[in-house]
Amino acid sequence: MEAWAIVVAAGSGLRFGQPKQHAELAGRPVMDWAIDRARAACQGVVVVTRPVDVERRAIPGVDAVVAGGETRSGSVRAGLAAVPARAEVIVVHDAARPLATADLWQKVIDTVAAGADAAVPALAVTETIKRVQDDAIIETLDRHQLVLVQTPQAFRAGALRAAHADARDATDDAGLVESSGRRVVTVPGERRNLKITEPADLAVAALWLKGCT
Q1: CATH topology (fold) of 3-209
Q2: What's the number of CA atoms in the CB half-sphere (13 Å) around residue 156?
Q3: Which residues pair with 131 in a beta bridge?
Q4: Tens digit of pLDDT for each residue in 118-135?
Q5: Is the pLDDT score of 12 beyond 80?
Q6: Could you identify which of 11, 21, 138, 211 might form a hypothetical disulfide with 31, taking C-beta atoms 3.0 to 4.6 angstroms apart as the criterion?
Q7: pLDDT digits (tens, 9 = 90+) for 36-90
Q8: Using CA atoms, how far apart are residues 145 and 158, in angstroms rounded to an integer?
């Protein structure tokens, strides 16, 4: 099955203090590490950037660079418009996750190829989770029924396009596909597949790249 990747690099980085996808990690922009994995795993790659970045620099190995929307879902839809109709599997990945392994990319793609509408990496929750309201704890959730979800997330192309057809927003694309009644399954995620959110995360990512635990 022909697989294409959409690497979402359109965030403003408010919590980070700058667009984190452009921050330096081991001598390269964070997003370049994510793009490398996408290029190795898929037949085509679309990168979605901030409008100001579309023509800022050439990105080797990328088939298209498009401007993102006002929301994450809007940015994914902009990427979808650049993915050719022949693509059977579409993988959506956050540029701020530079350490997802080739094995993880292959797992999500293979799971969709085997029949799932979507496959997402998930980690077990190891901390106690509380629900609060106005700073007061009102419920303790059963963590055994909860997972932390990562990207890359792979989708049967038709399922992802249909889920985005009504222009709704969600924190991830799997949420849109779930709400459309499609079958979304999990594969084991990776602890090293952290999302760069704060400057300190760059130091942790650099250690992983050096092979440290």
Answers
A1: Spore Coat Polysaccharide Biosynthesis Protein SpsA; Chain A (3.90.550)
A2: 17
A3: 139
A4: 999 999 999 999 999 999
A5: no
A6: 21
A7: 999 999 999 999 999 888 876 678 789 999 999 999 999 999 999 999 999 999 9
A8: 29
Q: Which amino acid is present at 36? A: D
Q: For residue 122, count CB atoms less than 10 angstroms from its CB and return exposed for 0-12, middle for 13-18, buried for 19 or more.
A: middle
What gap in Å lies between CA 162 and CA 2, rounded to an integer? 18
Instruction: Domain ranges for the chain, please list them.
Output: 3-209
Provide CB contacts within 8 A for 156, sequence distance 6+: 88, 89, 112, 116, 117, 118
Look up residue 172 and give its amino acid: D
Distances (CA, A) of 38 to 5, 73, 92: 6, 19, 9
